[in-house]
Amino acid sequence: MTATAARDRVHMERALALAETYRGRTSPNPIVGCVIVDAAGAVIAEGVHRGPGTDHAEVDALKQAGDRAQGATLYVNLEPCNHHGRTPPCAPVVRDARVARVVIGIADPIASHAGGIAVLHAAGIAVDEGVLGDACEAANRPFFTWARHRRPAITLKAAITLDGKIATVGGESKWITGEAARADVMQLRATHDAVMVGIGTVLADDPRLTVRQLEARDPIRIVVDAHLRTPANAAVLAGGARTIIATARPGDLEGAEVWELPARDGRVDLHALAHRLASENVTSVLCEGGGELHASLLAAELADELYLYVAPTIVGGPAKSWVGGGGVAALASAYRATFDGAPVMFGGDVRLHAILAPRRHP
Predict the structure, then answer these.
(1) Residue numbers annotated as active site
(2) Residues 283, 145: contact at Cβ < 8 Å?
(3) CA geometry: angle at 194 spanning 81 and 88, to 5°?
(4) Rounded mean pLDDT for each run of 10 residues along the chain, 362 residues in total
(5) Do 338 and 319 touch, CB atoms closer than 8 A?
(6) Chain centroid to CA 320: how far?
């Protein structure tokens, strides 16, 4: 690796770190960070996108750099846009700042927003693409999923025993994991646009699905409830956060938006729900179960990531698993995933993160 390539990676890593500080607050926009480095290699400005209607990361950094941006190198994890939305396009701003070089992690997946690279090339600015491209795409998996497939990225989450159970045979589930792991779940909720459960979880656990003990906005709460059985006094209807009941039958429920959606085999069509959520600019959903909803999302090939919080306990017997459904008959049909990063310890519990692969159909 050349010295220039090594420096490019260092500054792109910093741009990604800046972007990460606003995860959960920019939707439906991507998370973006920017670093500007002068000809001598010194960082002269850093910028970050803070949410819809605010400056894009490049503009934020260029305002700080001022005239020092002339002849500098600008690093950004996503292609500068050439689209006029809530804010003006930032590619012309980068061009007019007279930087000498722009290093981009990955191109914008939305055709109407792209074109920034062409603007820079036309101005004679050197452009290098693909620096830490995989990491840049992974950082904005929700945005890319929403842009390319018109659905939110969906993450499955479960707190389980060593034998994969989410409750005892008697239905006891509070609490499988310890306080530290549960606090991390609050952080996870805060980075998603919405949190979703099935009606079975509502009836068994009566969750609030809010972000507790954090200074963060509560996510949208979604209950998949084909037959509209959510009790009028359910905790998920209280607290003021937006609540959506996805159902297959008409009806009303005070404190919630009732979305009547098509049914498939007597259940809510999850593809229809995903596309409806995308139309409302929901780019990321954390699904906290139960096992039947997890199984349905896997079968529909709508699940993208997985977080498992594993407690060092064993309950045995026919207790509920974090994945229900009918199961697969052959290993060739099994769902596959790739672990992402090392396990993380929270007290005596461990968190596993994995990326789900497209299913192989024999």
Answers:
(1) 58
(2) yes
(3) 20
(4) 92 98 94 96 96 95 96 97 83 96 94 86 95 96 95 97 94 92 95 96 93 82 97 93 95 94 94 97 95 96 97 94 92 93 96 88 48
(5) no
(6) 27
Give every CB contact of residue 306 below 8 A, 6+ residues apart in sequence: 155, 156, 157, 337, 352, 353, 354, 355, 356
User: What distance in Å separates the CA atoms of residue 65 and residue 68, rounded to the nearest whole number?
Assistant: 5
Phi, psi of 129 (to 5 degrees): -110, 160
Can you spell out the DSSP letters for 182-221?
HHHHHHHHHTSSEEEEEHHHHHHH-------SSSSPPPEE
Both tokens of residue 217? 């906005």
Q: Where would I find the H helices in the chain?
A: 3-20, 57-65, 91-96, 116-122, 133-139, 141-149, 179-190, 199-205, 270-279, 291-299
First to last CA, the chain: 41
Q: Look at the chain and count its residues.
A: 362
Radius of gyration of the chain (CA): 23
Q: 333: Cβ–Cβ under 8 A, 6 or more apart, which residues? A: 359, 360, 361, 362
Q: Is 61 exposed, middle or buried (0-12, 13-18, 19+ CB in 10 A)?
A: buried
How far is the C-alpha of 105 from the C-alpha of 222, rounded, in Å?
A: 33
**Contact between residue 249 and residue 228 where contact means Cβ atoms under 8 Å apart:** yes
Q: DSSP class of residue 241?
A: S
Residues 209, 221 contacting (CB under 8 angstroms)? yes
Cα 152 from Cα 146, distance rounded (Å): 5
Contacts of 28 (CB under 8 A, 6+ apart): 52, 143, 146, 281, 282, 283
Quick one: tokens of 196? 């979703």
pTM above the 0.90 mark?
yes
